[in-house]
Amino acid sequence: MWIALSVVAPFGMLAVSGFMLFDLRQDAWERAEQTSKNLLQVLERDIARNVEMYDLSLQSAVENSRAPGVAEVDAKLRQLILFDRAATARDMGVMLVIDERGDIVADLDAMPPRGGNYADREYFQVHKSRAGLSLYVGRPIVSRLTGERMLPFSRRISKSDGTFGGVVLGSVKLSYFTNLFRQLDLGRDGAINLYLDDGTRLMRHPFNEADIGVNIAVSPTFRGFLREHSGSFIQTSVRDGVERHYTFTRIGSLPLILNVALATNEIEAEWRAKAIVIGSMVLVLCGLTVVLSLLFGRELRRREAMEAELERLSQTDALTGLPNRRAFDTAGSRAWEQGRRDYAPLSLLIIDADHFKRFNDRYGHQVGDEVLKGLARCLSASVHRPNDLVCRVGGEEFAILMPDTDQAGALRIAEKAHAEIATLSIGSTGIGAGAITVSIGLAVVIPSEADSTSMMALYRFADAALYEAKTGGRNQTRCARSQGIAAVSQKPQLLIVGSA
Description:
Elements: H1 2-65, H2 75-82, E1 92-99, E2 104-107, H3 122-129, E3 136-137, E4 141-142, E5 149-158, E6 164-173, H4 174-181, E7 191-196, E8 201-205, H5 220-227, E9 230-236, E10 243-250, E11 256-263, H6 264-267, H7 269-314, H8 325-342, E12 346-353, H9 356-363, H10 365-382, E13 389-394, E14 397-403, H11 407-422, E15 438-445, H12 454-471, E16 476-481, E17 493-499
Parallel strand pairs: 15-16
Antiparallel strand pairs: 1-2, 1-6, 3-5, 4-5, 5-6, 7-8, 7-11, 9-10, 10-11, 12-14, 12-15, 13-14, 16-17
Helix pairs in contact: 1-7, 9-10, 10-11
């Protein structure tokens, strides 16, 4: 008791310390998640505000292009009309009006407009084929006018009859996102990503040219972004194999997904340092206590182990390795009580080697021992249920105890035992198969409350049946008739049920 308490007490201290460290870890995660949400909110608002400003410029150009006579006025005046409400910013790219053939008809930054045909661009083809489309955000492109990487925004121009009349194009330099994201320090393995909802990466911080335009729609990470409008989860990145905590959101009603990703090992870095110091100190102190207690208790455990081994040896036959008479008596009492509770039949086979003395006299006790070992193997091979017990109860006599087994089942086991023993041979002495036989006595009873010593009576029944098998010619099985424990005081009636 005292040893147990001296071991449990340190574990209690460890449990308390572990709870405190777990609470500190939860705080670290909560701070990281709140920081991610705050950063995400700031970035989302900035991007949404700028995109809204650019879109208002596009809508204004579309509306002004429908004004009567705009197409016939002087080019410089047409530029003023089309872009009268156009927004300007440092990271804004080009803003163009493109006709239905793909040619530039108005250019915010040049007069006369710069030349070029854009009929092959994705946004042009999309608007040409989809009349009801509003603002379209395309994949990153390299501008043919400036050579810079840009993110295109576009709106369709429809003629008075509803047919395709061209496109108003506005673009944002990707440097806008680079400048916006680089202000934030997310650690060595932290990252910020902006995606189209089709999985195309528009920008990543830290910036890597090879990441821009890559589609990750099939990755588990991106599928997590599509499940909800916003949220967070932990996932290992397919890009670099780093496990990160992703906090994400869609930007307004735009087809844009923004996420802030913090490496999980960096989230826990500060907590881990504290945990190592605190945990080490507690472990050392608790370890000393436990070691001293265990050293004291080691001798007790050795003594218990020796006692357990002695107990096992006391119930095991040294020659055959089978349970001995003591184990048989213990198991028999348990089986009897179980049978009495369940009102189930209990069967017993008593097996005795025929003419065993002849083997000892002719070949010596060493060969006799080999015969007994062989019989043990054959009898063990005759039963397969875990509750059936094969024992050596003394000399050349064995027993098979079979709970919940009726007479027919016990006879099958007896027949199998005869068949197994018929194959037994001792090659070193010339004893061939069939030379060794056994006689078997079988008894079956259904235990009841009538007599607490009925297991002994069952043994007597089986032993009497064995005697009949011996006097009847050996190498056979005889069965004792008995109907429940009430018959134990009567002389059992014996019946020859077969011979091997």
